[in-house]
Each structure stands twice: as structure tokens, then as C-alpha cells.
Amino acid sequence: MTTILDTTPDDDELGLPAARRRSAALERQIHERPGRFRALTGDRPTGRLHLGHYFGTLHNRVRLQNLGVDMMVLIADYQVLTDRDVADRLAEHVEDLTLDYLAVGIDPDRATVFTHSAVPALNQLLLPFLSLVSVSELGRNPTVKDEIAHSRQSAVSGLMFTYPVHQAADILFCKAGLVPVGQDQLPHLEVARTVARRFNSRYGPVFPEPEALLSAAPLLLGTDGGKMSKSRGNAITLAATADETARMIRGAKTDADRDITYDPAARPEVSSLVLLAALCLNRDPHEVAGEIGGRGAAGLKGLVTDAVNDRFAPIRARRAELAQDRAHIRRVLRDGNEWANAIADDTLKEVREAMKAFY
Ligand code: TRP
Q: What are the tens digits of pLDDT across the range 23-36?
């Protein structure tokens, strides 16, 4: 296949170059007037978050919050119901996720942490929104296709199929202008933009079109060299102890070349470990690799273990302390849900007025 552009066809299909340029422009505007922006992002409560989540998105959420952006952090608890194993332990997962958020520095005085199942008006938006998209559009969504392919279910539920529309409700209920996400979420965001546009043109202007804020998420691999993932058991969690961390890194896949270099294309496993150390130390990965030099995989692993354990010691200590205070966790969620409900009720009222469905 020939490509004329210096991007891969996949990148282009997703509109990635344009999305990256737009994100850079948004970053400049955020720095000028952070208070003008509301951002919404979130996670499905499927277990404890790991270092990939931290450097990929959590760190960025805390940065935006600290700049003064109004942060809404969603725990997407309805969207895990299709996974039986996860659904059976929902409350535990929600609590774990909340603890992870608070431990990394999401501050409930400045950010709203909420669960979408507790916000009825948010979910009611799903009905008018579903009327605005076709079944074939949903069937084409690449992220849904991917998730269906990877799910352990034999049949695709209606909930899974309509996930992007539900996600549109998650974003639009609070009129979030910014959605800090990884590039895998771009197709979902496109659905939210389409829903906003179609709603506005049919019923009048209610929703701003949300924009993706792509962060330069570093690609960290799991300790087996595959994609880092909770379900593959190859991820170091935020909550892991120093010993567990050491054990996982000791078992991590490397290669036979004693000289440590940073070369993600040729040496993905070694380079991912170098990158992890560099991220923890706020340093350049080439420099870190150069310093390890001929000390081999053992030298590399020792350095990565210390770097991770030093960087995450305060976060882990805070997490352990917060875990003792269940009442606090419940209060954070109750307050977050209360505020999310107030916002959602206002939006639903506006929506019903726009639809002339107010009797
Ligand atoms: N789909 C996201 C994920 O799998 C989670 C999510 C649900 C989300 N609703 C959202 C992310 C709204 C951003 C905005 O990680």
C-alpha cells in the first residue's frame, strides 16, 4: 500500500492529525482562561487502576484540575453490567476507583466524582439521543467493534451496542466542552458531537459540541510485553506494595542484549521499562538508558523498581490511609452525585422544553 502522507492510514481515518492540532490549540486556550472550561472524563469500574492509567490520563486530569478547569470525573458503573465477573463486585470496584482518584490528587473540593447510575436525568437523555442515530452508524463504530471482539460474551447486548450514545449522554448532560481521552475514544467522541449537532438542528441550540483533548499518552507495555491491561495480570497497579512491584518487575520480559538502549521499535520490552523509569524520574528515556549502559536487564530492573517505588510511595501511603475511612469515600460519592444530579436536572429540563415535551 502506498501512503502519500507521513501518517498511517489508520491515523488519518481517525482524523488524528487534525485532532492533535486542535488539542494543541485548546491547550493554549486552557492556559489563558482555565475557568471557562468544563472537562468530563471517566473510567469503567473494572478494577484497580495501573501505572499505564496514571501516566496516560490520571496525571493529566490532576493537571487540568490544578490549572482551574472544572473537572467532572465519571465512574461509568452502568457500562460494566455486561461483564458478569465485574458486575458481581461492582461496589468494591467503585470504591477502589474512587480511592485511586483521591490518592493521585483528584480533589473533591475542586472536582466532581460521580457514578452515572445515580443520575437519572443523565440516563433519560439516552432516549432522545437514541432517536438521533441509526443502527448502521452504531454498527460501524470501530471502538464498539473492537470491544465486542475482545469481550468474553457470546452475544452482544443492546447496552454494549448503544454504549457510544450513553457516553454521549455522559458528556452532554453537563455540557462539557472538553473530553480528555486517549485516541481509542475518538470514535465515541465523534458520536457525542454528532448527537449534539443533530439535537441542536432539530430542536434548537442546547448542547455545545464537545472536543477531544488528546494527551501525549506514553505507550507503556505490560510486564509480559503485551498491552498493559487489568485483565491480563501484567500491570503494576497504583495500589501495589513495593514488594509486589519489585516482584512484577523482576519477572518482566526483556531481551538478550546486555547493553541497555531506548529503542521502542526494535526493543519494545526493554524500552518500555526504560520509559517507565524515565516517567517516574521526570527524565529523558535516552539518558536513563545511557546511564544503565552495560549493566544489563538486572541493572535496568533494579533502577525501574526504585524509580516506581519512590515515585508512588506518597500516593500509595495516601491511598492506604484513605482506605481506612469508608465514610469519607461514601461522602465524596454522595456529594458528587448530588451535584451531578443538579446539573443533569437542569439540562433535562432544557431538553424537554426544546422538544416541547413540557406539560
Ligand atoms: N469509554 C470509556 C472507557 O472505556 C469510559 C467512559 C464512559 C468515558 N463514559 C465516558 C470516557 C465519557 C470519557 C467520557 O475508558
A: 999 999 999 999 99
User: Does 74 contact ligand 1 (Cβ within 6 A)?
Assistant: yes
- Secondary structure string (H, E, C) spanning 151-197: CCCCCCCHHHHCHHHHHHHHHHCCCCCEEEECHHHHHHHHHHHHHHH
CB–CB of 306/254 below 8 Å? no
Residue 260's nearest CA partner among 220, 298, 309 is: 298
The pLDDT score that the predictor gives to residue 152 is: 66
* Minimal-distance CA residue to ligand 1 atom 2: 43
24 within 8 A of 16, measured Cβ to Cβ:
no
pLDDT at 8: 44
d(CA 306, CA 296): 16
CA of 40 to the centre of ligand 1 (A): 9
What per-residue confidence (pLDDT) applies to 123?
98
CA dist 230 and 123 (Å) reads 27
Q: pTM higher than 0.90 for the full model?
A: yes
19 lines ligand 1 (CB under 6 A): no
Closest approach atom of ligand 1 to CA 176: 14
Containing 73, the helix (H) or strand (E) segment is: strand 70-75
Q: pLDDT below 70 — which residues of the chain? A: 1-14, 152-153
The pick from 60, 80, 185, 214 for probing ligand 1's pocket by mutation, whose C-beta has the most ligand atoms within 8 angstroms, reads 185
Q: Does the beta carbon of 181 lie inside 6 Å of ligand 1? A: yes
Instruction: Tell me what pLDDT residue 51 has.
Output: 96
Question: How close is the Cα of 64 to the center of ligand 1, in Å?
Answer: 17
Q: CATH assignment of 242-322?
A: 1.10.240.10
Whether 242-322 and 9-217+326-354 are alike in CATH topology: the answer is no
The CATH superfamily label for domain 9-217+326-354 reads HUPs (3.40.50.620)
Q: How far is the CA of 136 from the centre of ligand 1 (A)?
A: 22
Residue 277 near ligand 1, beta carbon < 6 Å: no
Q: Which numbered atom of ligand 1 lies nearest the CA of 116?
A: 9
Q: What are the structural domain ranges in the chain?
A: 9-217+326-354, 242-322
> Over the stretch 162-177, which tens digit does the pLDDT of each residue have?
999 999 999 999 999 9
